[in-house]
Amino acid sequence: MDMIVAREIVTVLAFLGFLGIVWWAYGGRRKSRFEEAALAPFDDEERARIRRETEQARRKERGK
């Protein structure tokens, strides 16, 4: 295998990895999670505490 071919293969694999990351990041299932995370720095502590408690309650319900 020639060194040029090996470099081409690595380039193609890196590009496919990049496309996979973009697909994962912009997928519809994660949109609400990312929007919430984007607003996290602007939340006050009380809202954050309530959200954590709600999330813990949901996890307990799912575990049943």
Automatic annotation (TrEMBL):
Q: Which domain of life is it from?
A: Bacteria
* Alphabetically ordered keywords of this record: Membrane, Transmembrane, Transmembrane helix
InterPro entries for the chain: Cbb3-typ_cyt_oxidase_comp
Question: TM segments?
Answer: 6-26
Fetch the Pfam families from UniProt.
FixQ (PF05545)
What is the name listed in the Swiss-Prot or TrEMBL entry for this protein?
CcoQ/FixQ family Cbb3-type cytochrome c oxidase assembly chaperone
| Organism listed in the record | Pelomicrobium methylotrophicum
